[in-house]
Amino acid sequence: MDIWEIGKRAKEASRVLAELSGDVKNRALFEMAESLSEAKREILSANEKDIAAAREKGMSQALIDRLKLNESRMLSMTRGLQALADLPDPVGQGEVIKRPNGLTIMRTHVPFGVIGIIYEARPNVTSDAAGICLKAGNSVILRGGSETINSNKAIVSALVLGAKKAGIPEGAISLIEDIGHESAMALMKMREYVDLLIPRGGAGLIKAVSANSTVPVIETGVGNCHVYVDESADLEMAKHIIINAKTSRPSVCNAAETLLVHKAVAGKFLPEALNALQQKGVELRGCPETCQIFPGIKPASEEDWAEEYLDLILAVKVVKNIDEAIEHINRYGSSHSEAIVTKNYDSANEFLSRVDAACVYVNASTRFTDGGEFGFGAEIGISTQKLHARGPMGLKELTTVKYLILGDGQIRE
Amino acid sequence: MDIWEIGKRAKEASRVLAELSGDVKNRALFEMAESLSEAKREILSANEKDIAAAREKGMSQALIDRLKLNESRMLSMTRGLQALADLPDPVGQGEVIKRPNGLTIMRTHVPFGVIGIIYEARPNVTSDAAGICLKAGNSVILRGGSETINSNKAIVSALVLGAKKAGIPEGAISLIEDIGHESAMALMKMREYVDLLIPRGGAGLIKAVSANSTVPVIETGVGNCHVYVDESADLEMAKHIIINAKTSRPSVCNAAETLLVHKAVAGKFLPEALNALQQKGVELRGCPETCQIFPGIKPASEEDWAEEYLDLILAVKVVKNIDEAIEHINRYGSSHSEAIVTKNYDSANEFLSRVDAACVYVNASTRFTDGGEFGFGAEIGISTQKLHARGPMGLKELTTVKYLILGDGQIRE
Q1: pTM (predicted TM-score)
Q2: SS3 B192
Q3: Which H helix or E strand runs over A172?
Q4: Nearest CB to A365; choose among B105, B404, B412
Q5: Which of A161, A269, B133, B397 has the fewest CB atoms within 10 Å, measured from its CB?
Q6: pLDDT higher than threshold 90 for residue A181
């Protein structure tokens, strides 16, 4: 189908979706989950085609692992859809303002309309994004990568079938099957039909979408996160935090990429901590002082400070004080998640107020930046921009506001 | 000064502003008001230069009236700054979430950083925008039109002087004095220094900024607003509402531009209402049915439905039912403010839910769409977009969110 036709149908469907009750949307989510289960065989066999094509192209094993679907991943997709039904519907919630002239102003949350998602790799995003957009009353246009096109086709056709059983119009969930560059560019220019575009993927994808889109964009998920170990830190705690932040899941955006250590504790902290990290398989890249304290590791280059490794690699830098740590973070960080380990009240406050990021932690791992961990139930991504949403984006962030004003003949003086 | 240098200084100043207490910002607002009063003579004489230049260029009297400063307009500028001091500081306000693992998550409002305002005509915007941005902890870069350059220079230099007395860094309030096209374009591309851009002015300006800016934009103030008179309307009320919406201040964005009337009441309603509008000096442009009921007026062209007149002109159309009214509004409207006059509960609900606009009214004039009228105290404009802010934008909309997370060693499983 022509991409403009997809946009038009999505817009039309969004007008129907906006008026659906929470009950109907929840029923649709259950039907979508069931339909996904029933199509398991087709989806897994489509996924095998993608895996075979990836192997042929010589894709890395790590990337192939991200593409791969299996029974347990399928199960978590269906459970994700069912779990959305349990969350409160954000649509129609809001506040009431009564004005002295008698006007009743309702500030209510309403769906955006049509949300476009441009993403790479993991096919579970297809189902997660479709579910969360529908729950918030939005049509979704999915534009996945070429590497998962067969999986995505099979997943979307199952989702559409399920949603249809609950009376959801077909245009509500669409996949752009044309995986050429032009289809993504067209999606970025369809202001007429698309209200919001969310790119999910690597820094290159995010940057390309931001630079080219005339549709409003929310940037997500590039995480060059730091852990700063202050002079006063509990060093045992600091060690556990950096190990967790770096190694518990190195391929995700809230993993730490650089360790900063106050010079007063570097001599004591680094040997034990870096040794523990190495034992977990972490490759270290140090500033000159780090290399002196902990010889035999690779020296860090200027590029290392700006790098989001998404891998078992950690840059390490000794700083002369908290100011240098904060300046380093504000210069090289991606405004995602930043942590200080400290026992000092003033240092904690200074770090919290001066670090410019979506999530700033005292004495906890950066890995908690996540809609589930924050108690939002579901998320569409982590926004690293300041407009509209910052940090984990839950259902409410997929809505906009509409003022409904009830009067009995008021006119303005 | 070089525009990139202005950007850099604004960014640096924003880091200081973000940490200022409400008391200091309020003191600055009072100092700015006082400084503005003291510079009254210089400002009025600079304004005279602008007026003379405007006359020389043959600008219309209506436009010259908008440029003109006088004692009472100066007084409302200084009072506006003082009034901001009385409003609650949005910075640092927020909610607390306690998680089962012991983490305390504070969702707090923080300043954006640097806000750019590109605007036309009225010089009071210079002072209003500087005040509201400062109150919300943001640096502001002002880029007014060539027609008010002398007034703006005098106003900004007084504001900077006053702010300085309260310890506000100089970069916090800047005016781009270079009024060439390139300076506006540069401002639209300074993602490094500018966090948010708000264009204020006509549809052409808003469109140009949206199309060219790589800095995030909030579109404001284009208002093609409608009043729809339903079959069941109290016709006397409807007459008062359309007269108010059209004539109380025709040059503003929340004024009505088109009247839609249900065919069942058109014959009864239109002669009296249109006659009353004509007596107020309104030029009418009607659909064929309107011209038949009320002969002698100009026929409306297709362009009239899309036009924001900002003048004493009103397009009038008879519709066959509420569906046609809603479709007309969603097709030609600018998603600003829309009103229905009705006694029917179902019609009211349908209009509220299906009209896609920032503010939707039942039985009240569209003219109430305003930060002051909504009880927000001050506003920087009316957003007609869905991302971040929609409708009147108060102080809170000039902030973003930052999550501050306090732990005692939590790591993620």
Answers
A1: 0.93
A2: coil
A3: none
A4: B412
A5: A161
A6: no
